[in-house]
Every structure is written in C-alpha cells, then in structure tokens.
From TrEMBL:
<protein>
    <submittedName>
        <fullName>Nitroreductase</fullName>
    </submittedName>
</protein>
<feature type="domain" description="Nitroreductase">
    <location>
        <begin position="8"/>
        <end position="59"/>
    </location>
</feature>
<keyword id="KW-0285">Flavoprotein</keyword>
<dbReference type="InterPro" id="IPR029479">
    <property type="entry name" value="Nitroreductase"/>
</dbReference>
<keyword id="KW-0560">Oxidoreductase</keyword>
<comment type="similarity">
    <text>Belongs to the nitroreductase family.</text>
</comment>
<feature type="domain" description="Nitroreductase">
    <location>
        <begin position="67"/>
        <end position="146"/>
    </location>
</feature>
<dbReference type="InterPro" id="IPR000415">
    <property type="entry name" value="Nitroreductase-like"/>
</dbReference>
<dbReference type="GO" id="GO:0016491">
    <property type="term" value="F:oxidoreductase activity"/>
</dbReference>
<dbReference type="Pfam" id="PF00881">
    <property type="entry name" value="Nitroreductase"/>
</dbReference>
<keyword id="KW-0288">FMN</keyword>
Amino acid sequence: MDFLELAKARYSVRKFSQQQVEPDKLDRILEAGRLAPTAANAQPQRILVLNSEASLRKLKTCTTYHFNAPLVLLIGYDTTASWKRPYDNNDSGYVDASIVTTHIMLEAANLGLGSTWVGHFDPAVIRKTFALPPSIVPVALLPIGYPDKASVPNPNHDKRYEKDKTIFYNTFAASE
C-alpha cells in the first residue's frame, strides 16, 4: 500500500476481536520498532510485550484504556541510554520512544492489525505493576490486535486542518 494511503486508512481501534496476533506478525511489528530512528542512534527504546493472560490482567489494574486487546506493547525508554542535548540536557528519550511507537503502529496497520496509542496511565503505577527499573520511563501503551467487526473510526478521524493552519514557510506566523 502507498504510504499516504496507509496513513489515511489507519485509525485508532478501540474494539478488538480476541484472535491472537501471530508470532511472525509480532516479530515484524517489533522489527519496525527496532529499525526506527533515534537521536544519535542511541536506541534507548525498551518494549515490554504483554500477551499472557496474567500480564494483560495486571495491565487492567493500571488503565481502563486497554480495550481488551489480545496484545499490548508497553513502550518506554531508558534514561541511561537516551541521548541528551548538550545545550540544555534535554532528554531525547520521549521523542525516540514516540517515533518507535509510530513505526510500530504503522507496521501493525500494514499487516491488517489495529492499534491505538494510549497515554492515559499513571507512570508510577505502571512502574510498580511491571517492576520496571527506575531508569525506564513508560511513554505509551499500544493495544494491538485484529479489529472487531464492529470497529469503526472515530467520527473525527478524517477531520484535518487546512495546511495553512499548520505549515509555514520561512517565517512562523500563528494562524488567527
């Protein structure tokens, strides 16, 4: 599929079938994340695969936004590995993990799977529940699976601002 067609067609799935994601598809999804660019190629992303009944049950104590997906990826970064900008020590890890998450979402869609980016969780609860080391910062939960037959895009899915509201050439001027 053409990339722009894939980007337009992909939507946040909030109702999944219980069909399991095949191991080869999971491998391809994880490979897409592994190949994602990161600042200074530091590769600080850390991905926890939650696909057992026990781990998915634990996840449900952390957020209501799990959508009963048969697979959830917890994507974060390791602060001991992420690149820090020398001018202000800004940590690139959050951006790196976000790029990884985007690559994973798009590969999932490419494989006929659905996903939705979940940021609504308490990082401290996630850390404690999954015994994350202190250097790991959770960024996103990504429920993944086959969309339920009743799954449809949000009514606002296709609504986008005109380009002149978000794109500027040579000078930055906020839209009125």
